[in-house]
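In response to a reviewer's request, we include the raw inputs and outputs for one of the modeled complexes. The two entities were modeled together in a single run.
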Amino acid sequence: MQGAEIFIESLLAEGVDTIFGHPGGAILPINDALYSGRIRHILTRHEQGAVHMAEGYARATGRPGVVLVTSGPGGTNVVTGLADAFMDSTPIVVFTGQVPTGVIGNDAFQEADIVGITRSCTKHNYLVRDVKDLARTIKEAFYIAASGRPGPVLVDIPKDVANASTDFSYPDSVDIRGYRPTTLGHAGQIRRAAEMLAAAERPVIYAGGGVIHSEAAAELHELGEFAATPVTNTLMGLGGFPGRHDLWLGMLGMHGTYTANMAMDQADLVIAVGARFDDRVTGNLEEFCVGAEFIHIDIDPSSIGKNIPVTLPIVGDVKMCLQRLLKELRAMEGKDWYAAHASWLTQIAEWQRDFPLLYEQDPDGELMPQYVCEQIYEVTAGEAIITTEVGQHQMWAAQFYHFMKPRHFITSGGLGTMGYGFPAAIGAQIAYPDRTVIDIAGDGSFQMNVQELATAVQYDLPVIVAILNNHSLGMVRQWQQFFYEGRYADTSLEVSPDYVKLAEAYGAVGLRATKPDEVRPALEEAIRLRRPVVLDFVVKMTENVFPMIPTGGSIKDMLLA
Amino acid sequence: MPRQQNGEVQRHTFAVLVENQFGVLGRITGLFSARGFNIESLSVAETEDPSVSRITLVTAGDDMILEQVNKQLNRLIDVIKVTDLSEEPHVDREMVLIKVNTEDFRRAEVFRIGEIFRAKIVDVTAKTYVLEVTGDEGKIGAVIDLLKPLGIKEIVRTGKIAIGRGQGAM
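The model returned the following structure tokens for the whole complex.
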């Protein structure tokens, strides 16, 4: 069987139904084999669009997203997406074409050492030098991408390998001696964790994206309620615990709620679950949770003890560890958790009452971006899949759309990739054609992958882009206001396209709202149309995101308004 | 509670078993440069199993960095096993070839120093010797210090190799 056919058979064996890609010379044998239509190929307008679509697909479904691009610039254009997926532990498998093996290293046309380039931003990568290795390599690539701490894997396929033939048999299993993730969690450590939680007076669960990846939202919910322990989520963890719940503190960190950050500061025990103590969460490490001991549950041992010394490390899959922790807790008899934590929970309720997230929408005044986010929540009844770009709008989406379930919020957390949200929304929409998918965008970010409007129109996807248009690079502008004495260098987008006309030029629908009472009708119309829609919400330019803890600061530096 | 422990910097010797494939060394050195860890010395060669290579790597850092070195190495798919040999009794050796000036009646002195350190003279010219010396860090350092005033023309070291003591194996 020819290499290109082996590729297709292998992907079918992995259950792949969709590939996101862009063709080119070196990958043509595989595109040609895809002509049979056995796997759907989504033609994107830029390789970066393809890789973010695959990320969106993966984050919405939990299954690896697949990308197919050509050599050279095709490969270099996916690097940002690989780095993004690596930071956020998103399982994707990227296939790149490569020049024929005989000319590798000769500076051939469209040649780039993509395996060398992507070594530090993939979980693993491969150059397939012999067609006999192709099926096994694909098997390993999917296994590595989706297991353990998920991540991106790149497979580079030279053109002559895709053209060469060999006998095909797809391996049933993989055995990689250097890769055996610990999933179960150490029983003794889990017992100690239960004891520490039982002894704590002011515990907080700090839950990250690992809860989403390991499908552990139900266990987290149960743990919080059983042990009367409040929960805060990282940006990546939103939806891992119901966003409207007495025990939910809101998001923590730089733009986290007052309550979440105060609870962390005052806690005597922090249970980190599938989170990695990112600097946007901790701020100044010296002043972070100074009174707390830490339990850290994570599948990646290198995440434990990296930034914060941990009292009790537990290496394992979050879901399995939480199940076993719950079992230990249930076996403890006679503890009234709610009574034990009564004063702690009262304190938290007071913070929540006294310091909610605030903004004011004057009915006749400028449109507020927070209001738009709340309206999106109301109109979609919290059921939409929300993606975002990166910046102020991302934080407002995180703060004002209440994520009740996992896999409803898809955002670029670690790398902070502007241009992520729109293609990610397309990927999620392709996975779930009947759901409402909305990219809450900034005008700056949207322009970074705006070309994918053509993809949305071509495949008739009812994806909605809600631009919170403040005619500037708002988050950078906010920093300039606070930390650079209002010297607004290079953050004004005074020359911008007319987004309504731009949408129409692509064959999509463009709608604009400039007043509060226009927001809801525009959203309802966009959802009703079931077509690609760009909503241009012209919002107040100078609005800032609060609370804010400046970089490297601590709770005492928190700005509330 | 201490946070970023700017603890005492220690040198540790790691033994790393890796898949014997192209690009593996690049992954390891890339990991060190990307995370700002030091490599003080590195030596690599195939083991008795041709599919496995063994790397001996000397690095320096505080406890937190050394722990991260270990964990980040383990995170690489092509890394089969990592042992921090500095945590256990081990033997380490390095070999050095030193080309020394033997002009101006220094030949006898160079020869004598070589004998004391059980060096082999592996190349001789009218003006130079090449000495081969094997030993631990202290011995190598001492012989270099003694030969330096006599005129070292060129030096090459293998980098440290190390193995755990006792019956156990990696």
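As requested, we also summarize the result in words. Chain A has three domains: 3-163, 187-354, 369-538. Chain A touches chain B through 24 residues (CB under 8 Å).
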